[in-house]
Every structure is written in C-alpha cells, then in structure tokens.
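Q: How would the structure tokens look for this protein?
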Amino acid sequence: MSVTCILRAGGRIFDPDAFLAGSALPEPVIQRRGDPPWPGEQDTAPRTRSGFSVTVSDAGMDDLDAQIEEAIAFLDQHEDELRRLGRYEGVEDMTIDFGIAWRDAATQTDWFPPELLWRAGALDIGLCVSHYLAQEQES
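A: Here is the predicted structure in token form.
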C-alpha cells in the first residue's frame, strides 16, 4: 500500500542532513536543493529548496478517519522533535499532507477535528489535502 499521509518540512537554506543526524523521526526521504525532480513531477527544473518527508500514516486513501487518528498519535509521539524542527535554521514550512481518493460526487467535503487542528497549529504545522483518482476511475 502506498503512503497516504506524510509530513513535509523544508526551506531554501535548510540542511536536512544536519537536522536528521540527531533525529528520531522515522525513515525520512530527503530532497536537496539542486537535485533533479523525481520522475513524474510536473516541474522539470532542479530543486530550489531542501527538505524531507516522513510517513505519518499509511492508512488507505479511503480512510481519512484512520489517517487523522494516526496523525494525532504521530504529533503526540514526536512533539518535542517537531518543535525542534520548527525552530531549526532554514525551516520555512512544515505540512501534513493527507492523501484522499477522489470520490465521484458533486461535492467532496472532508473534516478535521479540533484536536488535530490544535495540535498541528501549536507546532506551526499546516494541513493539506491531496486528492487522487481512484484506481477504478483511472481505467
């Protein structure tokens, strides 16, 4: 199953290698300024920022409730490290991105509970929703 909920952190002068050298965050994927884009990315220019991403939840794209529960647990478990990250030199932004399957509906509404909003906001972490076509819709 692909990862559906991730934390991203980055900035123009951020050094992710230096930050992660003493970090307990799980299995980061690092991007460095000047690196080429990954296959399939729309932008073809080299990266202008450095950063990393870590898995927050691997619940399915059709299970936002589980993603939210796991995101709250992640924020609780890594609160001190995320606070350190937010203060680290060069970090311009931190975002938790929730991957959600596109539903065949006139309106697609997703709701975040105050507990998640409060915990993320207290750590200066933004929230994002990325919608993806479901496999059966792609066929």
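The chain has a mean pLDDT of 89.

Residues 64-77 form the longest helix (14 residues).

Upvote if useful.
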